[in-house]
Amino acid sequence: MSLPNASLLPMTHLTPKTLLGGGGEERESLAQLYAVQIGSHIARRDPEERRTLVVGLGIRQLKHDREAFLDVIELIQKVL
Q1: What is the full DSSP assignment across the chain?
Q2: Cβ(68)–Cβ(33) below 8 Å
Q3: How far apart are CA 29 and CA 72, in angstroms?
Q4: Residues 71, 54: Cα–Cα separation, whole Å
Q5: At what angle do helices 66-79 and 25-45 cross, to 10 degrees?
Q6: How far apart are CA 10 and CA 67, in angstroms?
Q7: 31: which of 14, 42, 47, 64 is 20 to 30 A away, CA to CA?
Q8: Cβ contacts of residue 2 below 8 Å, gap of 6+?
Q9: pTM score, two decimals?
Q10: 30-47, pLDDT tens digit by residue?
């Protein structure tokens, strides 16, 4: 069994917390997953980075499919 590309997995030491809003458990879980992925990307790019990351998402409609999630993560990686 081959392991997925390690760069796609979130780093285990990151702990997301909802500060405002959330809009329900399902929406909150997805937003935390996005936040951990963004934080992981930044931490891998610059291992010395130690600042707190605050992420604000304006997701109108939740899309639970893998393709939509990966599209958003890819877009964020291009911006960063």
Answers
A1: -PPPPGGGSPPTT------S---SHHHHHHHHHHHHHHHHHHHHH-TT--S--------SS---SHHHHHHHHHHHHHH-
A2: no
A3: 16
A4: 21
A5: 40
A6: 17
A7: 47
A8: none
A9: 0.75
A10: 888 888 999 998 988 998
* Digit-coded pLDDT (tens) for 50-73: 898 888 877 777 777 888 888 888
Residues belonging to the chain? 80
Q: In sequence order, what are the residues at sequence separation of 6 or more whose Cβ sits closer than 8 angstroms to the Cβ of residue 29? A: none
Structure tokens at 1: 């069994």
Contacts of 56 (CB under 8 A, 6+ apart): none
